[in-house]
Amino acid sequence: MGTKEYDLIVLGTGDAGQIVALAAAKEKWKVAIIEKKAVGGTCALWGCVPKKVLISGEELANFSQRMAAAGLSSKTTPDWPELMAFKQRLTGSYSENSRSRLQKHGIDIYQGAASFVGEAAIRVGEVILQGSHIHIATGACPRQLKISGEEFMTTSSEFLYLAELPKRLVFIGGGYISFEFAHLAARYGRKVTIIHRSEEVLKKFDPDLVALLVNASEKLGITVAINQPLMRIEKKGDELLVIVQAGSVEKVYGADMVVHGAGRVPDIADLNLEAAGIEASQDGVIVNEYLQSISNPRVYAAGDAAAGGVPLTPVAMVEGKVAAGNLIHGSKYQRADYRVVPSVVFTLPKLASVGLQETEASKQGLQYDVSFRETADWLHNLRINEPFAGFKIILDRSTGRILGAHLLDSHADDLINLFALAMQHNLTAADIKQVLYAYPTASSSIQYMVG
Ligand SMILES: Cc1cc2nc3c(=O)[nH]c(=O)nc-3n(C[C@H](O)[C@H](O)[C@H](O)COP(=O)(O)OP(=O)(O)OC[C@H]3O[C@@H](n4cnc5c(N)ncnc54)[C@H](O)[C@@H]3O)c2cc1C
Q: How far is the CA of 436 from the centre of ligand 1 (A)?
């Protein structure tokens, strides 16, 4: 067993890992990066990117179905294998490209699961690596549900690579991954059920708009079953039986596939953090505002593996940049700015949110005005025959600044970024209304949303 020495060892090749490895390598540091799966990380290989490409097929189906309902032409749904092949063409080379980029910068790549064997020592396979600094960016993995039959569940990563889409799917958990995949499968004509343990699905989003989205989902044929905690999963021949508690009785859903959408947790359980004296909680490695471990100063952490920021790609990227800056220029060089973090549920229509919820503004005792309106009758929705759309905007009463923006809209993914831009730069409702927008566009509608 050999030992190798590095200035920096990075655990994980996702965005929060690669950014740090590349930044250090550009400073002529000797860098190693370790990956237990394919090089590239969740967003590029098992998350945002393949998902968004698959949604192209759904958009095609959805648009033609909506326009057919408005009297225009017939319905089109691309074949599932055709759609998968399209996704593969667009994303198939990503892992190899990432590997080449890292190698081009002189970074040593180790394949295998890393774990600590000392304060600054990592084992990968038979090799021990010693690092002046270590950066943990191991991301997240599906939460263990600790129920009987858990092994019969399909993960979100597996779902994104399905050669065939089964006829009946049950999604466990009413979060964004379940809703996105459920919409995709339902638009392919599958029988889809989302099972959620409590009253509120999509908890981080505005409840009035979530109610509209649930209506849209049910109209699409999706069953959204709330207050039904999962008890166990049984396999009977080819069929999976999902057994939930529904009030005082057990209820059974038959399925061909059961998909885990019940949350993700930091992937740190197997890192043996104790060997390095690294403190962690269920939210991840505990770091200070500079993303440095509070208990082992030579260690940094970023992205889904670190406690603090929300588990989204832009946050992982910002944290990667911040950690890199602090590693290279001194431990207090910069902090992450989490003031404005937009997020989107890529259902059709899309649900998006940035800033405070109405309940948060109220809890904080702020003086604010709220406007909530359905917008199916606005031109950009009318012309595509989209019946489910709306917004809720929360404005600071004295300054007119945006405290929160919440949208259900076909264009919500782009519109929400305009609100994020406005919030980041403290623009007021009056500033937004002053702009001369190109027309007719969805973005020109934001001037009417702010009053
Ligand atoms: C289905 C899905 C859809 C998503 N959609 C969106 C979206 O639309 N928008 C958005 O902003 N975010 C989305 N996310 C979240 C986003 O993908 C993550 O927040 C982001 O990828 C986190 O980046 P990271 O670098 O922290 O971790 P990852 O990209 O997860 O990288 C961690 C890497 O570490 C590796 N690793 C783990 N343990 C070890 C070990 N012991 N040794 C070696 N390697 C290890 C993993 O294999 C992985 O490659 C989605 C996630 C999923 C699962």
A: 39
pTM above 0.90, yes or no: yes
**Ligand 1 centroid vs 446 CA: distance in angstroms?**
32
57 burial type by CB count under 10 A (0-12 exposed, 13-18 middle, 19+ buried): buried
Give me the amino acid identity at 315.
Answer: V
The Å distance, Cα 31 to ligand 1 centre, comes to: 21
Give residue-wise pLDDT tens across range 323-372: 999 999 998 999 999 999 999 999 999 999 999 999 999 999 999 999 99
Kindly list the protein residues whose Cβ atom lies closer than 6 A to any atom of ligand 1: 11-17, 34-37, 41-43, 46-48, 51, 113-114, 137-140, 156, 177, 267, 270-271, 303-305, 311-314, 316
What phi, psi does 346 have (nearest 5°)? -85, 55
Is residue 150 a contact partner of residue 161, using CB atoms and an 8 Å limit?
no
Q: Exposed/middle/buried for 133, CB within 10 Å: 0-12, 13-18, 19+?
A: buried
Taking only the tens place, the pLDDT of each residue in 17-27 is 999 999 999 99
Q: Which two tokens stand for residue 298?
A: 């030579």
Residue nearest to atom 31 of ligand 1 (CA): 14
What are the φ and ψ backbone dihedral angles of 299, each rounded to 5 degrees? -105, 135
